[in-house]
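Table S2 (continued). Query chain:
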Amino acid sequence: MGSTSGRTNEGLGRRDVIKRSAALGLIAVPTMSFLSACASSDSGSDEKVDKGTKSAKNPLGVNETAALEVVIFNGGFGEQYAIDAEKKYNEAFPKAPKVKHSATEKIQSILQPRFNGGTPPDLIDNSGAEQMDMGVLVGKKQLADLTPLMDAPSYDDPAKKVRDTLRPGVLEMGQFDGDPVWVMYYAYTVYGVWYSQTALEKLDATYPETWDDMLALCAKAKKQGIAGWTYPGKYPYYLPFSLYPFIAKIGGREVLDKIDNLEPNAWKDPAVKAAFEAYYELFAKGYILKGTPGLTHIQSQTEWTKGKALFIPNGSWVENEAAPTTPADFKMTVGAPSSLDASDKLPFGTVWASGGEPFIVPANSKNPEGGMEQLRIMLSEESSKNFTQKVKSLTALNGGTDGLTLSTALQSGVDVLAKAGENVVNPRLQDWYAKLQKEQIGIAGIGEMMAGRATPAETIKKIQGFADAAAKDQSIKHYKHH
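Corresponding output:
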C-alpha cells in the first residue's frame, strides 16, 4: 500500500502523480455538483443520525438502528479481517441494517469527492498509493476526534481504557498537534532489513551486525552470483525503512527529530552523511541486483524470494504480500540495521516500528459513534488474533499474540521488538509530509543516488533543498515533535 501510514507498498512515479491529479481535477467539478445534487434531493442525507443511549454494552452510545458504512483499503492485508469484525458489529446491533462494506485500492479517487460533497462513509482504512493526505484532512478539520474511543472501556476488559491496551507510540501517531487523536493505526509494522534465514545458512553466514560484516557478506554472495541487496527502484521510498533507523543508530534519535521538524541543515548532520555513504557503497561495489532501479515493489520482492538477492528493506506486510512467490523453506526474517561502527549512539537492535493501516472516522459521517464502535471491536483480542492469523501482521493491541503459533517472519518481528526495547524509532515524515517523503526524498533523492546517478554529497544538498522548500511552503500545515 503506498502511504504515509508507515505502510508504503505501492508507488506512483511523478508522471503518474501529475496525470492522476489532472484526472482528478477534470472529474472533481461534475462529481461535486452531482453529489450536491444528490445531497439536496435526498432529504437530510447529510444529517447525522441521533445518538443512542450509553450503557455498559454500548459505551459509545451508538444508535442501535442506524446504518454503518465501512470502506477498507484492499492491499496487502485484504478485506476479510474487516468483514469478520463487522459480523461482530451486526451481532451487537441486530436492529441496525447489515454493515455496508466495500473495499478498493483507489481510496482517494473514490472518497475525496464524497468528503467534498459532505457524504463520507463512517469508517475508512485510509491507506495505499492513493491514500488521502492525513495532514491535509486534519488541517481542514475533516476528521472526527477519536478521544471518546480512546477513553472508552476496552472490549475485553472494561476496567482498562482502549488507550491503555495499545502498543507504544500508536496513540501518539494519531495526534498531529497536541491532544486530539485523529487516526487509529490498526496494524503494527516492524520495518527493517528482510532476509531468508535459509539463504544465509547456505552461505554459512549469520545476519551482519556491523557494516563491515555486511559488505563482507555481500562480497561472498557476489562470488556465488547472488546480489547483496534489492529494493523497489520505482518506489525508492522503501529504502528509508532501514536507512532512517540506521541514521538514528549512528547519530541518535534527535537527528531524525530534526529531519521531521524540517529544521535548517538537518540533512547535513554527519550521521546522515555516514549512512548515505555506507548505502552508496552497496551501489559502488556492485552489490545491488542489476535492474533494481526499474523494479516495482512486487517485482523486487519476487527477485528476493527467488533468491537473487539476500536483503531487501521492507515492512512486515511483506510476508503476506510476497506469500505467492515465497518458497516453503525460505524462513523469512527481519533484522535491525547493522551498526556502522563502535561510535554509533544507539546499540545494535535499534529499529523502526510503528502503527500502519490508518483508520479514520470522517467528521461529517452520519454515524461516527458506529465507526468508533467498529474500531473498538477490531481492538478486541479475538479480532486482533484473527487479523494476525489471516494477514501475518501484528496489530496495535499490545500482546495480542498469546497462544498463536507464529510464522518465522512474525516471530522475528516479535523478537526484534523485544531486543530493541526502548530503542524503537518512529520517523514521522511519511505521515506529516507525504509528498516530500515519497516523490522528493525517496524518488528524486535517495532513488537517484542508489541508481548511481548522484553522489551522496549531491543528494544531501538536493534533499536539504526539498526540506527547506517544504518548511517555507505556507500552503501545507507544519507539525513538530514536542
